[in-house]
Amino acid sequence: HPIIHLSAIQKSYYMGKQAIPVLKGITLDIHKNEYVALMGPSGSGKSTLMNILGCLDSPTAGKYVLNGQDVSKMDDDSLADVRNKEIGFVFQQFNLLPRLTAAENVALPLVYAGLAKKTRHEMALAVLEKVGLAERSHHKPNELSGGQCQRVAIARALVNNPSLILADEPTGNLDTKTSIEIMDIFGKIQSAGNTVVLVTHEEDIANHAHRIVRLRDGLIETDRRNEHPAKSA
Ligand code: ADP
Ligand code: ADP
């Protein structure tokens, strides 16, 4: 089964009694080990769709099956559970805790999983190694570059071994060269068997992904396989 199965997803916001449709019928399957870029003009519904994919919000209509579980009609508590187990989030602003070291930031999701401190630290170091940042494990965010901070955030998203990595404009605060490094890291993560869905405004960045889905006005405009993803040197 696909990791993500969306069928006729609709989402409306309400201004008083008036429904404002934002997603107007999104049908989409994403399989394990795909690397997908979600594009589209501002206001086309990308953030709304990512919120639904991330179980942060529920659709108004339609069906969402995540890794075999129908999440479209779950209550908030069950959604929070699914979110913690199945999804790793990466944000534009990194969202790292400034007083914690890289390793402590990465280990944070494991605190909620109830693992012992030593185990948490070892697991954090292992994922920091995967994103090429092992030697920075004891540094705090203000001692790291933007690209390094984002790698810490990616490591934190991975540490729970989720079935899906969701990233909303993960390169939005980074220069081009660093953005490409980050896209390569997502590529490595994908090669290792993970599934990555990210939002970007930039064609050159999206071109590193293996599939490009474009939204327009709440609908999928195009969905194409990228046969020759860009690679850095
Ligand atoms: P983007 O996803 O393009 O970076 P945002 O998600 O921040 O941008 O906002 C996209 C649009 O959605 C903006 O026009 C913003 O005004 C609107 N928007 C976001 N949240 C709300 C809200 N709670 N109520 C009304 N409009 C909102
Ligand atoms: P994108 O991420 O592609 O910029 P969004 O999903 O943020 O698009 O927004 C799509 C539309 O939904 C926009 O017209 C925006 O104003 C509206 N919107 C987003 N969030 C809210 C909200 N919480 N309340 C009302 N309108 C919203």
Automatic annotation (TrEMBL):
<dbReference type="InterPro" id="IPR017871">
    <property type="entry name" value="ABC_transporter-like_CS"/>
</dbReference>
<dbReference type="GO" id="GO:0016887">
    <property type="term" value="F:ATP hydrolysis activity"/>
</dbReference>
<dbReference type="InterPro" id="IPR017911">
    <property type="entry name" value="MacB-like_ATP-bd"/>
</dbReference>
<dbReference type="GO" id="GO:0022857">
    <property type="term" value="F:transmembrane transporter activity"/>
</dbReference>
<dbReference type="InterPro" id="IPR015854">
    <property type="entry name" value="ABC_transpr_LolD-like"/>
</dbReference>
<dbReference type="InterPro" id="IPR003439">
    <property type="entry name" value="ABC_transporter-like_ATP-bd"/>
</dbReference>
<dbReference type="Pfam" id="PF00005">
    <property type="entry name" value="ABC_tran"/>
</dbReference>
<feature type="domain" description="ABC transporter">
    <location>
        <begin position="4"/>
        <end position="233"/>
    </location>
</feature>
<dbReference type="GO" id="GO:0098796">
    <property type="term" value="C:membrane protein complex"/>
</dbReference>
<keyword id="KW-0067">ATP-binding</keyword>
<dbReference type="InterPro" id="IPR003593">
    <property type="entry name" value="AAA+_ATPase"/>
</dbReference>
<comment type="similarity">
    <text>Belongs to the ABC transporter superfamily. Macrolide exporter (TC 3.A.1.122) family.</text>
</comment>
<keyword id="KW-0813">Transport</keyword>
<dbReference type="GO" id="GO:0005524">
    <property type="term" value="F:ATP binding"/>
</dbReference>
<dbReference type="GO" id="GO:0005886">
    <property type="term" value="C:plasma membrane"/>
</dbReference>
<keyword id="KW-0547">Nucleotide-binding</keyword>
<protein>
    <submittedName>
        <fullName>Putative ABC transporter ATP-binding protein</fullName>
    </submittedName>
</protein>
<dbReference type="InterPro" id="IPR027417">
    <property type="entry name" value="P-loop_NTPase"/>
</dbReference>
